[in-house]
Amino acid sequence: MNNLSDEVKNNIINGLSEAEVQDRVEEGLVNRSTITTGKSVKEIILSNTLTYFNLIFLIISILLIYVGSFRNLTFLPIIIGNTIIGIVQELRAKQILDKMNIINAPHSIVIRNGAQEQILSENLVRDDIILLTAGNQICADAVVMEGTVQVNEALLTGEADEIEKTTGSKLLSGSYVVAGQCYAKLEHVGNDSYITKLTAEAKAMGNDEQSEMIRSINQLVKWIGIGIIPIGALLFYQGYVVNQETMQKSIVSMVAALIGMIPEGLYLLTTIALALSTMRLAKRHILLHDMKSIEALARVDVLCVDKTGTITETRMEVDEFIKSMTNQELSITEDPGQLLVDYAFSMADDNATIHAIKEYTEKLNINVERRKPINIIPFSSTTKYSAISFEDGNFVLGAPEFVMREDYNTIAPEISSYVKNGHRVLVLGKYRGSNMKDGLTDKVVPLGYIVLTNPIRENAKTTFSYFKEQGVTVKVISGDNPETVSEVAKRAGIENAGRFIDAGTLNTDRKLADALEQYTVFGRVTPKQKQLLVQALKNAGHTVAMTGDGVNDILAMKDADCSVAMASGSEAAAQAAQVVLLDSDFAHMPDVVLEGRQVVNNVQRSSVLFLVKNIFSLLLALLSLWFSFTYPLEPSQISLISMFTIGIPGFLLALEPNKKRIEGHFLKNVMLKALPAGLTDVLAVASLVICGQVFSLPKNDIATASTMLLAVVGFIILFKISEPFNRIKYGILIFNIFGLVFCGIFLNQLFAISEMSKICVLLLIVFSFAAESLFRYLTILIEKLDELYSRIKHRKK
Fold first, then answer.
1. Fewer beta carbons within 10 Å, N or C terminal of the chain?
2. What is the pTM of this model?
3. Core vs surface per residue 249-265: b (16+ CB within 10 A) or e
4. Active-site residue 306, yes or no?
5. Chain mean position to CA 636
6. Of these residues, 306, 349, 549, 681, which one is catalytic?
7. For residue range 63-83, what is the model confidence (pLDDT) as tens digits?
């Protein structure tokens, strides 16, 4: 601090006093943003209450009360229950996530009252002095007071290049410290800083980035929402004006059709399934910044992983330090071991490598007077080396390929055996040139080699074996030597780990795309190349997940379909990721995948039940308009069928463990299974109505018979989608059959179930058997048509 004024030195040493902090808090100059990515309690209540379909239900409830048809309000408890359950589940999920976010919230080291302390970044105030080191996210706009750092402003500028910041330089929130250390004074905090928008972008996907399942459900609900108003108006007109029905009968029939068309439980089912999965994962120390990310990870077919922190432990160990046999300048330098001690003592970088080297050098017990550094260049992930100038020369420490460059082959024989065994090797050398800041241009004389190792994670083999079984391709993308990374990947059990390449040779997009098809391990990858590799995989039609723990992974993580960070890594990566492994245990990855599969597969299966009712009600409403007959069912009857063939079984099946791999598109899968049952329903009921008119049967008999017929088809489709059966599924089926029979016998007046004539019972039995055959053949027909369409589409490609 020799070049700083006494006032600046005093500000850095003492920071703000408690009184000064309190003054700024009262003025609102706190680094707390009012923009959040999650919903508030009020927003959760309103979003579950003030919905378009709840408005429709309110209107039709008022109409039913107006005509005195109170028994047909049986759908109201279900709607109110749906709303309350949705609110409670979202509030529970929010409570758990808020607690987890507090535990995992960004922290900063601040100087106050002359002492360092670590506090939540949101509790910083303007003019606070903070200490920034490698891996820290810059939490508010600041200016460097003392020190030198290299900053990655990729999230602001889109450029991956690291920018050196010295005394007086501006630091923008949303950027990250890559190397070095400095003291900085906060200038703009809270809503006045860039971090407000950047954090929102890092933590949440936009509306155009919603998962396929959510997007499909939204699309389905949108279509239904547009159609029900004109259809409802036409049904009322036909019943009241054309068929000369009473006001009550016209409104009741119209309401029954509309209730059948509204998928009132589908949104709730999806929300609860996601919320429950989020809470289950939270108990396993997995934090989701957004619930939809588990679906993306469940659909992943390519998993990109970094070596350090993912395959291996984050900590590093120095196995040994070896003097170079090719060194020709030992006579003019002291012992390389002493040089390494002096180098490590002078370096202020805060990363696993430097920590390991410092731990090693402390054990050497070299107690001579240490060299004093004249100039220090922190490590950069772009140049792959750090450098220090002492009085007796300039010295560099870094990756052999980047430090030795064209002379690498001269030292390769000395380090090849270590590299092949999966060790990381750094070369310590003397630089013959003078300017090291802008890159190495002159020769470097090797003095010694540091042999480091990262222990393989205990459960790595099991985890990668799981992904192999699931057909997920693993790509290892690392900044280390490709041969070293390959050996580590082999030890972790990654398939085809022997296929490796130096990413430095991939200088065109074409070479990059071709390499992705041939190689598994990519070494010497720059942060920008990691991003390009992820983009190339996505362009090839893959669903890509990217795991990482460092600043150099952020660009790739932002572009991946799903990003996963280790909490033990840099704070920046954890904040940018959609999924954070709070205990940094990569073995939890299968848990997230299985949760995603359970949610998507179960919601998809249950959606079939909801869609059957919607298809039936829509088509029957159109048929009644076309053939000018009044919609035969009452709302209470629709509610009865919905409860025991859709709602209750749908929610219970959504809780069942489901490890099946996700295949195909959500909406297509649902439609293919729902369409046969929906068509069976409408054809069977329409035929029953026509027969009722032919035999002049009472409308109440036809309505009851139609309800029973819908129940039969409902249980047929429930049986179909529940295969293969187990005790739980048999229990669900039996419980719902019993519930329907109980309500039909003991609550028959509430649900408008009346006694039927013998001929009506006979028609019900005949149409029930016919419905089973019709459903079976329609299922086969639609499957054949889908296969034919797929073959035609494949030929066109």
1. C
2. 0.67
3. bbbbbbbbbbbbbbbbb
4. yes
5. 41
6. 306
7. 999 999 888 888 888 788 778
